[in-house]
């Protein structure tokens, strides 16, 4: 019973923490740290929520969550008789765990299919450009720049973008898209898209997904600034905004109109870096969250 209560308290803490985190102002100063903390909150909340129900369900076995589930699967007889509440908790816990895993796998499969279809389409309507080696140029007059993530990642720009941007601005945009590919930001966003599918009615989940999408763009901006002028990248973003950038295809990473001004302000007027003590404190909190739920799954209190 203590393990179930501890997991329930941890799940509640993650839910409240996520709600408060959506209004945090320091995240733009350290987007990578904020992304790690968001991931920790999401993973811990899922494990703690399902674990609380399953811990109560396997309480008659007198074991931890994981050992109790193994005993249940083996058909062992519990030390104490089951009642209706324990049975209900088992059904609810297994159902919730199955739903979370299913939506994650479904989101991943759909993203892979969308990218495969898009690669086939690009083979028909795009071409290589000797001036931009390794970049596919889309035959479209609209402004577009995005990446197709995966093992065979591709960076795509449109003819409209080539005409819209100067050489330096295009280099800045390509550095940004290359950062998405290198840091596999598609995998960062996948769990939040899956959680949005599972809980479409939750405002906190919706806000969390929007926050992580913006943080991913800021993280890519930070990496691009190592290779280009931040003002060139800001100018390119403004040009995309005024020209009306094409919508990014499903499953790809590209320019989002709703995040342009926040990114431009950050590039033009960079805020001071987050103090190291706060940075390490947030990382320590993330590690604590990520280890606490698995610990409570394995050991009984």
Automatic annotation (TrEMBL):
Cofactor requirement: Zn(2+)
Listed transmembrane segments: 30-47, 85-112, 280-299
GO MF, one annotated term: metalloendopeptidase activity
Keyword field: Hydrolase, Membrane, Metal-binding, Metalloprotease, Protease, Transmembrane, Transmembrane helix, Zinc
Co-factor remark: Binds 1 zinc ion per subunit.
GO biological process, one term: proteolysis
Family annotation (CDD domains): M56_BlaR1_MecR1_like
InterPro entries: Beta-lactam_resp_regulator, Peptidase_M48
Peptidase M48 domain span: 113-191
Keyword Transmembrane: yes
The keyword Transcription regulation appears for this protein: no
Family: Belongs to the peptidase M48 family.
Name of this protein: Zn-dependent protease with chaperone function
Organism, as annotated: Nonomuraea muscovyensis
């Amino acid at each position: 019973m203590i393990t179930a209560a501890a997991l329930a308290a941890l799940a509640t803490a993650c839910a409240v923490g996520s709600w408060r985190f959506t209004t945090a102002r320091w995240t733009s100063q350290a987007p990578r740290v904020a992304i790690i903390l968001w991931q920790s909150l999401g993973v811990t909340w899922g494990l703690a929520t399902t674990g609380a129900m399953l811990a109560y369900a396997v309480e008659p076995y007198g074991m931890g969550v994981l050992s109790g589930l193994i005993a249940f699967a083996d058909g062992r007889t519990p030390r104490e008789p089951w009642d209706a509440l324990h049975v209900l908790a088992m059904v609810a816990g297994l159902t919730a765990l199955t739903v979370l895993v299913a939506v994650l796998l479904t989101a991943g499969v759909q993203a892979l299919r969308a990218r495969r279809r898009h690669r086939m389409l690009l083979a028909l309507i795009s071409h290589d450009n000797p001036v931009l080696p390794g970049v596919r140029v889309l035959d479209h007059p609209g402004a577009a720049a995005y990446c197709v993530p995966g093992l065979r990642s591709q960076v795509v720009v449109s003819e409209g973008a080539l005409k819209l941007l100067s050489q330096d601005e295009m280099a800045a945009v390509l550095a940004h898209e290359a950062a998405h590919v290198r840091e596999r930001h598609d995998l960062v966003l996948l769990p939040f898209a899956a959680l949005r599918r599972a809980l479409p009615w939750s405002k906190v989940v919706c806000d969390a997904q929007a926050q992580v999408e913006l943080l991913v763009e800021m993280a890519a901006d930070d990496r691009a600034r190592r290779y280009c002028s931040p003002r060139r990248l800001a100018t390119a973003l403004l040009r995309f905004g005024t020209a009306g950038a094409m919508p990014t295809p499903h499953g790809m990473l590209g320019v989002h109109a709703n995040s342009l001004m926040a990114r431009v302000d950050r590039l033009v007027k960079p805020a001071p870096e987050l103090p190291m003590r706060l940075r390490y404190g947030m990382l320590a909190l993330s590690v604590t969250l990520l280890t606490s739920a698995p610990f409570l799954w394995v050991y009984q209190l």
